[in-house]
Design goal:
Number of helices: 2
Distance between the termini: 14 Å
Radius of gyration: 14 Å
Shape: globular
Strand content: 15-25%
Number of strands: 6
Structural class: alpha+beta
Strand order of the largest sheet: 1-2-3-6-4-5
Number of domains: 1
CATH topology: 60s Ribosomal Protein L30, Chain: A
Order of helices and strands: EEEHEHEE
CATH class: Alpha Beta
Mean pLDDT: 97
């Protein structure tokens, strides 16, 4: 069973892809950039961008009837590794606020991101305790 996830609580896709895919046991999000789903605005500060990207991931996971605590893997793409400490602080705070176990994570610096944002985050969540 493969089902597309669509929610107005996260920005719509800006290309030929979906916000997320629900595979039953796994939910996989597309990369979420820090675009406010209501206004289309992008905050300037990297901390605000990190928070908004995480909130957009959360919206997709929630649309699949899962929680932040169900996220098992994230990938963080950043345009400047000098922003890592700030992004890391926001990331830690976000998962702590949701009383969630930290997921596994990869973080890589990339040359450029859509809309010239400072970061993009994608996630994988697990429904239940095992595959």
């Amino acid at each position: 069973m493969k089902k597309s996830i669509a929610t107005k609580r996260a920005p719509g896709a800006i290309g030929p892809y979906v916000q997320g895919i629900d595979l039953g046991k796994l939910v996989i999000t597309s990369g979420q950039i820090p675009v406010d789903p209501e206004s289309g605005a992008i905050p300037e500060a990297v901390a605000d961008q990190a928070r908004l990207s995480l909130e957009n991931v959360k919206a997709i996971i929630t649309a699949a009837d899962l929680t932040v605590g169900d996220i098992i893997k994230t990938t963080v793409f950043i345009s400047d590794m000098n922003d890592f400490a700030t992004i890391n602080q926001v990331y830690q705070q976000f998962f702590d606020e949701h009383q969630a176990t930290y997921p596994t994570r990869s973080c890589v610096e990339v040359a450029r991101l859509p809309k010239d944002v400072k970061l993009e985050i994608e996630a994988i969540a697990l429904r239940g305790d095992t595959l």
